[in-house]
Amino acid sequence: MGFVVMDETFDVWVREKTPLDFHLIFSDWHEQDLRADVRRDRNCPSVIMWSIGNEFGEQFTGTNGAALAKELNDIVHEEDPTRPTTTAMNVARPGSSFAAAVDVIGLNY
After folding, report:
1. pLDDT range class, residue 44, cuts 50, 70, 90
2. Has this prediction a pTM greater than 0.85?
3. Are 38 and 76 in contact (CB under 8 A)?
4. DSSP labels for the chain?
5. Are strands 5-8 and 85-89 parallel, antiparallel or unpaired?
6. Most Cβ neighbours (<10 Å): which of 17, 22, 43, 81?
7. What is the pLDDT of residues 56-97, one digit of tens each?
8. Are 73 and 38 in contact (CB under 8 A)?
9. Given this model, what pLDDT does residue 29 score?
């Protein structure tokens, strides 16, 4: 069928979206979970890029959010240097340090 896959790991980082979501354990588990996700799927030929997440509140936190995005981006590239990274942003501005932290800018809306 020719599927191509953007493999996305997180829906939330440190800032909560719902009261009992992953933000409660993100600090303790993000690196292990991200590495496990990439290692699990890195040999799948349909995976064309890695997404470190979807519409995070951290995109509005300036350099703090950008630093976290860069940390996650670096982890992905340590595990698979052959594929680009992205993150879905629901707000993007020229010169965004958050957008600069990934290889491909993902825009929603």
Report:
1. very high
2. yes
3. yes
4. ----EEEE--S--SS-SSTTSGGGTHHHHHHHHHHHHHHHHTT-TTEEEEEEEES-GGGGSTHHHHHHHHHHHHHHHHH-TTS-EEEEESS--TT-HHHHTSSEEEE--
5. unpaired
6. 22
7. 899 988 889 999 999 999 999 999 999 999 999 998 777 889
8. no
9. 98
In contact, 67 and 100? CB cutoff 8 Å: no
Q: What's the one-letter identity of residue 36?
A: A
Domain boundaries of the chain, sorted by first residue: 5-39+47-107
| Tokens (6 digits) for 7 | 């493999």
Q: Is 101 exposed, middle or buried (0-12, 13-18, 19+ CB in 10 A)?
A: buried
Phi first, then psi: give them for residue 49, nearest 5 degrees: -160, 160
